[in-house]
Amino acid sequence: MPITPIIEPTTSLKNARIGYKNLLTASSNTEAAKMLIPNTFERFVSGPASYTLKFQLSEIAAIDFIAIGAHNAGTHSGGVNILVKYATTIGGALTAIENLEFTDNGAKMILFDEIEVAEIALVFNVPVGLELGVIYAGKSLEMQRSIYGGNSPIDLNAKTEYQSTMSDSGQFLGRSIVRQGVKTSFSWQHLKDDWVRNTFMPFVNSAKTTPFFMMWKPELYDQAVFGYTTNDVKLSNMGGGHKLMTASFNMTGHQDT
Question: Which of 23, 60, 114, 209 is deepest in the core (most CB within 10 A)?
Answer without folding.
Answer: 23
